[in-house]
Amino acid sequence: MANPQSPLDRFLSRLLKSDPPRAKSLCVSLLGDALAPHGGAIWLGDLIALLAPLGINERLLRTSVFRLVAQNWLQSERHGRRSLYLISEQGLRHTAHASQRIYEGAARDWNGEWTLVALPRTGNGLAERAELRRELVWEGFGMIAPGLFAHPHTEARAAHDILEKLGIPDRALVLSARDLAGAGGLPIASLASQCWNLDDVAEQYRQFSRNFGPVEKLLEEPPSPSEAFVVRVMLLHNWRRIVLHDPHLPSQMLPDNWPGHAARELCGRIYWKVFDASEAHLDALAGQDNERYVPVAGEIASRFGGRPAGTASESALPQSAGGMVTPSVST
């Protein structure tokens, strides 16, 4: 980091020591948040240099990158003795899918429709059932009865994609339903605490606010580009770990004073406070000698509800001739 004696630097070092990030997961966070908007290509040496201040050594990063290639998150190109890594089409689909949860959160309005996945008792073995349950829970579905999963926001397309991924597209029912509890039945929403582990998610949001609340005060002193980049990567990495496990239930189904709302607002404020300086650091490292590195994609301007007034000049993000933000790679 540029200024190892700064209060911000000391705070970040303590935070990293208390919760060291895993190399592969941290790499995925960086790819989706910072690199995909610039075209998604980076030299291995530059990736090593970007993540070294976060405690990721070269050996760990190389191993993680090789695994991401094997899992088709990344593709590699050899240029003499150098390796250029690019986010694959599958990797872009994954980051695009995650972006809604990370930067937007659950929709404020809900029409009362549920997506249901029902697994028949015959035609599916224990292994298929267990794997499907893991995938559906990861997507935010709750099990309301044996073999029956529900989610109030997730579109049916997401459920079909999971079934396709597992190779069982014709072994489960995907239904759209409306709760008819008004006729005297039990409302699905009343089962929220049983079907979703909201207490655990709420505590994760509270811990996030405890961890990063002090950062906002420390940022009153403008950070160096390298410090801003570390803040951004740590912030998004920790945020991503929580929101991708949050089922994103409608506000009507959440407890009063849901801590996720305050945590999201805090995350957005810090993100935009460090964005421009972090981009300068990224440009200086990843943008050099890289023809695949492009100006930041315009849709990034809508993240966390958009850049707050007064955080930076309007020229910080790309504009078209008509003054509108120019779109590029979706993240």
TrEMBL record:
GO terms under biological process: DNA-templated transcription
Pfam families, per the entry: PaaX, PaaX_C, PaaX_M
The Transcriptional repressor PaaX-like central Cas2-like domain, residue ranges: 108-179
Lineage: superkingdom: Bacteria
Gene3D superfamilies, per database record: 1.20.58.1460, 3.30.70.2650, Winged helix-like DNA-binding domain superfamily/Winged helix DNA-binding domain
Residue ranges of the region described as Disordered: 305-331
Domain (Transcriptional repressor PaaX-like N-terminal) ranges: 22-91
Domain Transcriptional repressor PaaX-like C-terminal: 196-283
Family annotation (PANTHER family): PHENYLACETIC ACID REGULATOR-RELATED TRANSCRIPTIONAL REPRESSOR, TRANSCRIPTIONAL REPRESSOR PAAX
Protein's name according to its UniProt entry: Transcriptional repressor PaaX
Organism of provenance: Achromobacter pestifer
